[in-house]
Design a protein that fits this description.
The complex is a heterotrimer of chains A (312), B (675) and C (298). Chain A is 79% helix and 0% strand. With 312 residues, chain A is mostly helical. Chain A is flat and about 85 Å long. The longest helix of chain C has 37 residues, at 91-127. Classes of the chains: A mainly alpha (312), B alpha/beta (675), C mainly alpha (298).
Chain lengths: 312, 675, 298
């Protein structure tokens, strides 16, 4: 166990350093750029150089990086140029919003996809399987913004049952809950499309295995064969995939956040990138990578717990 | 017969595939009484496993009963509804499968899997089920049942897994037990132990048994009756002594003819393979299915119309119109192949103190694993124009030896010489072309020995180009000539492996190895994966090629009958050490090493009179690397004399000729004990 | 003397599977026809390719030409079959012309990723050792990063042009393919025909490219279809987020971005490009599903 922790901790740190360094280098490579961004497009060259020297931006890249990481470890991630507030608070606020969305979506995706994936895979080529396969393929093919557009055109424009934006401000007559319905639905439908097909594929493969034949020929009722023997084996591979979805739910939902004007982490990153808010970009990248590696570790852990062959 | 437990009435089974319907089983009629043991034998594709699956109604997608009925205890199995079927399966009819590791759920303890049967069928509570499971584990002779219950399948050996599967099948005391190739894939000594168990269980539990196998030897010792199947039809069916003593169907005779038995070798007679080839399943001849390959065929009578299974004598049915006209069965004799065995020749390839240790890669944060000693101080020699056989069970190091000879692995210590040149430290990448040409290899698995994306001609052409050095002006011609050497028609060059049978693929592999006219050919289990009739043809081919080209053959196998037939010298290996080495007639007769003795006793012999191993090696094969000092066989040896076997490495006793035995027991004493 | 039984040349029976080998493309075509999803997918893809290729001929208007007169009725009408966008530009033409960059960029990126990924995966899986370590860790690092953020950062910095997008897509997709190929290579290198090739002296490069790679064809092709579909989604997303191809050329994602704010009034402006993207991706995914099924059955 200690070996496992040490190995993964090392990987976490390695990845964090590599990625943050790359992002840092990308943004702050040419010292003049940073100062110029601070001052705006109309600054003169002298002003730029003066600011560069004052901010210590003419020092070597690695030194500046080390200093940055040092400050980050202490909790000081700088100030956001766009929001004019400490980066820490900006990220925390947006991350909390995204966490809400992600939690709701995850809570729906897992049971939904497991149910459909197992139902499809347990009898391959049955009508149910064909239907579920079609459903999941189509859902995984429609980009999130298109799904959003389709759902909005039905439920907002045509039927008027739900709001078209989710700014989390309970104004305009829509409760926060109602605002969240469409974004969560879009995320769930799109992601489930992919997860269902993974679970289905794993289930189909497990059903071909000889030990399923053994269970059936022992006289076990079909339901017990599926629940007692097949599902646990079938979920070994998809578990890591499912945990990796958390990764997607935190950062990858920028599209949904944009469609519904949701103040989430992804949208914050997008605007930071477009606005060239360097401090925010660097800190955000750090957080995103850290989260990604953590989910990776969780996935490995789950794999180990489910498959006794690995534990030995 | 109304007292029959199981009755197949004119059963036909068809599969719906991409190219239409294929009849896997055609018009099979059989009856089995309670407590009777029927052996169903045949080669691949004959439909025996399909019959078994049909009885339990697990034919899979596309498979269906196309005609006839299966009656179990008087009820038509096809007419049962799902609930009745579930009730039958596991309780009245139980099955044991071929690959025990794959047949057990890897994420559930074996104890739980065992307990499920009484819990489902008898509604037993957990405690009662557990008690029954423990009792059953005792019946199948598993040591320490309490501990085994908590294990997962991958933590048990192959033999133990198969005992678990047998326990699972018998725990509900079924009326009918079907065993589908239960010992294929197990080592010979483990197989002997499992067969012994089945025989013992038969005496106690009065289940009827259907034992399916392609190995005539395994059924001889266990069954009362034998049914022989060919291409989906039952061609002969009768008491075991009649079938082996005086079979009446030409196919059965052909099968027995091509089996190498422990008493014969190549000098006396070539094996007689069944001529021709198995036709593809969609080719349906009008008359007898075997007519195209039969030595006794008469055009008018045999090919006119379907041949029925007719009663020849009491309890003995044969599907042959000429059954009564055939002479009493005696094994066919043909002339043997002259060998150079008597001539003491200089060794072409030899090893001295060869040791190979695998050190597992040290991974950062990985668990430290013990090094594996795959070969331990191995000394052998193979002489020109002769065949050296290496025989042993899994884990004995024979494959590692092949790899070291071939250069795929490199020796850790010791010397390997080829024509005097030291090659032990030379991996294949560092060997010159001349050396590569001199030593080539034929591999075990015909399905993976040829690249599925390349044609036969391309594969052989590459070998010719690289091993011969110069680019032969007429590559196509050279390829055609090589194909003819292995008795294949030159038009095979355009085919891809998918279109070839197992035997044809292996012939191509042999042709490829011969491209450079090598001095030594290392053959690693080249016939183990082939049907018996095809094996005979390939073995004969190897013999002829050796005689024609003067090649030295290093033949690795676990099959003692083939080794006895083919080899001039033999080395018996166990856990990386050579326990016995010498001329084949010396090794296979007393005095022999206790392990050789056990191996010989364990070989399934197609002769009901001699069935039953008298020496069974109990215990499990220790993992390589666990044995540090002493004799590797000490943990299982039936002739272990005491602590000296565990502590001291056995001395190598030199006997007549170059016969060597590594044992603490003096040879004279062994000779007396092994009479 | 050997017995006469073995001296004959074996008569070669006709092979069970096929007679003369039909040309490869014909076999592919009949194979695809056998699977319903594959047929549907292939038809959709071919239809779009045709529409995109013939866009200059088929489009009734120039894609960037605003039709001010139509601004009064932007909804679908006889003059404009799918209506116009908020600047009066004909939607049919914009969709047709917008298909061209998508159908060029996505496959090119997949090709690049496949070539790069296959080479890396082969080298890592066959050679093992330090190459394997470096490649696997690098792939893990790239894959552990949420790609959208990567795109945002890189494209916002370097600007988005067709080649930049192709490069970014290649670099982020190559690790996935490398992983797949590495897994396949690890399995295939244990096959006996690889050992046979080594024994006759083939070089490592030959073994990787001629012995191993052709047998990894099946899963790779299925994956390439899936990747193409996914790349099309990403191109759409990039356009939607504003970091896709620069205006005014029609970019399906960009079209949605410009018009979805007006959905309450003119929903068709956003719906049409959404339908276009979705249908194209469905085509590729269906083809992948169908091919996978065929692969299993063969």
């Amino acid at each position: 166990m200690a070996r496992f922790a040490a190995k993964h901790l090392a990987f976490l740190l390695l990845t964090l350093f590599v990625v943050s360094f790359l992002v840092f280098a990308l943004n702050e490579f040419s010292p003049g750029d940073v100062a110029r961004k601070e001052l705006g497009a109309y600054a003169t060259q002298d002003q730029v150089e003066a600011l560069t020297k004052r901010l210590g931006l003419d020092r070597p890249l690695l030194v500046r990086y080390a200093e940055y990481m040092g400050k980050a470890a202490a909790g000081d991630l700088g100030t956001s140029a766009r929001y004019k507030a400490p980066v820490r608070t900006v990220i925390a606020r947006h991350l909390a919003n995204t966490a809400l969305l992600a939690a709701l979506a995850f809570a729906c995706i897992v049971p939904f996809s497991m149910l459909l994936g197992v139902a499809a895979g347990m009898r391959e080529a049955s009508r149910l399987d064909r239907a579920i396969l079609l459903f999941s393929t189509v859902m995984a093919s429609i980009p999130e913004f298109a799904l959003g557009v389709f759902l909005v055109s039905v439920f907002v424009v045509w039927l008027g049952w739900l709001p078209g934006t989710a700014t989390l401000v309970a104004g305009g007559g829509w409760s926060v809950g109602a605002q969240l319905v469409l974004p969560v639905t879009v995320i769930v439908l799109f992601d489930a499309g992919y997860v269902i097909s993974m679970i289905r594929a794993s289930m189909v493969e497990v059903m071909q295995r000889p030990y399923i034949r053994t269970a059936v020929l022992k006289g076990m009722p079909f339901r017990r064969v599926i629940l007692g023997h097949a599902v646990r084996n079938a979920m070994i591979n998809p578990i890591t995939v499912i945990l990796l979805q958390i990764n997607y739910l935190v950062a990858g939902v920028v599209v949904v956040e944009t469609v519904f004007a949701y103040p989430g982490f992804g949208r914050m990153m997008l605007e930071a990138a477009l606005f060239k808010d360097i401090a925010l970009i660097e800190a955000g990248a750090l957080v995103a990578v850290g989260l990604a590696v953590l989910t990776n570790i969780l996935g490995d852990l789950a794999y180990m717990l489910l498959d006794p062959r690995i534990r030995a | 017969m109304t007292d029959a437990l199981l009755e197949l009435e004119d059963l036909s089974i068809a599969y719906d595939g991409l190219r239409g319907e294929t009849r896997a089983v055609r018009g099979v009629s059989l009856a089995l009484r309670a407590g009777e043991a029927l052996g169903l034998v045949g080669e691949s594709g004959c439909g025996k496993s399909t019959v078994a699956l049909a009885i339990v109604r697990y034919l899979g997608r596309g498979g269906r009963i196309a005609g006839g009925r299966i009656l179990f205890e008087g009820r038509d199995l096809a007419a049962l509804d799902a609930a009745a079927l579930r009730d039958l399966r596991g309780r009245r009819i139980a099955m044991v499968y071929q690959d025990p590791m794959a047949s057990l759920n890897p994420v559930m303890t074996v104890g739980r899997q065992l307990m499920e049967v009484p819990m489902i069928h008898d509604g037993a509570g957990a405690a009662a089920a557990r008690a029954r499971a423990l009792a059953m584990l005792g019946e199948v002779r598993l040591a320490d049942p309490e501990a085994v219950m908590e294990r997962y399948p991958h933590q048990l050996s192959g033999g133990q897994q198969q005992r678990i599967v047998i326990a699972m099948a018998l725990i509900a005391e079924p009326a009918l037990l079907i065993l589908d190739e239960p010992t294929t894939g197990l080592d010979v000594t483990v197989e002997a132990a499992v067969l012994d168990l089945v025989r013992a269980l038969r005496r106690r539990i009065r289940s009827a048994i259907v034992f399916i196998s392609h190995n005539l030897g395994t059924v001889a010792g266990v069954c009362d009756r034998i049914g022989v199947m060919y291409r989906g039809e039952l061609v002969e069916d009768g008491p075991v002594r009649r079938i082996f003593g005086d079979p009446r169907h030409p196919y059965t005779r052909g099968l027995l003819d091509c089996l190498p038995t422990l008493g014969r070798d190549k000098r006396q007679a070539s094996l007689v393979p069944i001529p021709g080839q198995l036709e593809p399943p969609h080719v349906l001849p009008a008359g007898c299915g075997f007519a195209a390959r039969c030595a006794h065929v008469e055009a008018a009578r045999c090919t006119a119309g379907p041949i029925a299974l007719a009663l020849f004598a009491a309890g003995h049915r044969v599907a042959c119109v000429r059954a009564a006209e055939l002479p009493v069965y005696a094994r066919r004799r043909t002339d043997g192949v002259a060998t150079a065995a008597g001539v003491a020749a200089a060794p072409v390839v030899a090893t001295e103190h060869l040791t190979k240790v695998y050190v597992p890669r040290r991974r950062l944060f990985g668990r430290r694993r013990a090094p594996v000693r795959a070969l331990n101080d191995v000394g052998l020699a193979a002489a020109r124009r002769q065949t050296l056989a290496i025989v042993g069970e899994s884990g004995c190091g024979k494959s590692t030896l092949a790899k070291v000879l071939a250069g795929i692995e490199v020796a850790t210590e010791g010397r390997v010489t080829l024509d005097g040149a030291e090659i032990g430290a030379l991996g294949i990448d560092r060997r010159g072309r001349e050396l590569k040409r001199k030593l080539q290899m034929v591999f075990q698995n015909p399905d993976s020995t040829l690249n599925p994306s390349h044609t036969v001609g391309y594969a052989i052409g590459r070998a010719l180009r690289l091993l011969r050095g110069d680019r032969p002006a007429d590559l196509d011609g050279a390829v055609a000539r090589l194909l003819e050497t292995v008795k294949l028609s030159p038009e095979m060059a355009a085919r891809v492996p998918r279109q070839l049978s197992g035997g044809e693929k292996q012939r191509v592999a042999i042709a490829r190895a011969l491209a450079g006219d090598p001095d030594v050919v290392v053959a690693d289990e080249p016939v183990s994966a082939l049907d018996v009739s095809v094996q005979a043809a390939i073995i004969n081919l190897l013999n002829e090629l050796q005689a024609a080209h003067g090649t030295t053959l290093v033949f690795i196998s676990h099959d003692l009958s083939v080794v006895r037939y083919l080899a001039d010298h033999v080395a018996v290996m166990y856990l990386g050490s050579v326990l016995e080495h010498g001329r084949v007639e010396h090794v296979f007769t007393p005095p022999s090493h206790p392990y050789t003795e056990a191996l010989l006793a364990a070989v399934p012999v197609p002769d009901p009179e001699r069935a039953g191993a008298r020496i069974v090696l109990e215990g499990t094969i220790p993992r390589a690397g666990e044995v540090e000092r002493g004799c590797p066989l000490a943990t299982r040896c039936p002739r272990r004399i005491g602590a000296v076997c565990d502590d001291t490495p056995p001395p190598v006793q030199r006997l007549a000729g170059d016969h060597r035995i590594a044992c603490h027991i003096p040879a004279a004493e062994l000779a007396a004990l092994q009479v | 003397m050997s017995a006469p039984v073995t001296a004959e040349v074996l008569t070669v029976s006709p092979p069970a599977t096929s007679r003369r080998q039909a040309p490869r493309w014909w076999r592919w075509l009949t194979a695809i026809r056998r699977s319903k999803p594959a047929t549907v997918g292939a038809v959709i893809i071919l239809a779009w390719i045709l529409l995109a290729a013939l866009a200059p001929l088929l489009a009734p208007y120039a894609p960037n030409a605003p039709d001010l007169a139509a601004l009064a009725h932007t909804a679908p009408s006889r003059a404009h079959w799918l209506g116009t966008d908020h600047l009066g530009r004909d939607l049919v033409s914009r969709i047709l012309w917008g298909a061209r960059p998508v159908l060029l960029i996505a496959p090119l990126a997949v090709l690049g990723a496949t070539i790069l990924g296959s080479l890396l995966g082969l080298a890592a899986g066959y050679r093992r050792g330090w190459i394997d370590l470096v490649v696997t860790r690098a792939c893990d690092i790239v894959l552990s990063f949420p790609v959208i953020i990567l795109y945002m950062i890189i494209l916002a910095h370097f600007g988005s042009s067709a080649w930049n997008i192709i490069a970014v897509l290649t670099l982020t997709k190559a690790p996935i393919i490398a992983r797949i190929v590495r897994g396949l290579t690890l399995e295939l290198r244990e096959r006996e025909y690889v050992a046979a090739a080594k024994m006759r002296g083939e070089s490592a490069l030959y073994i990787m490219l001629v012995e191993i790679l052709p047998n990894a064809r099946g899963p790779l092709i299925v994956d390439m279809c899936l990747r193409t579909g996914y790349n099309i989604i990403i191109i759409g997303v990039l356009g939607f987020l504003g970091i896709g191809l620069p205006p005014p050329d029609p970019d399906w994602g960009g079209m949605v971005k410009d018009t979805y704010g007006m959905m309450m009034v003119w929903p068709h402006m956003a719906l049409v490009p959404c339908a276009a993207i979705s249908s194209l991706v469905i085509g590729f995914n269906m083809l992948a599903v169908g091919l996978r099924e065929l692969g299993l059955r063969d």
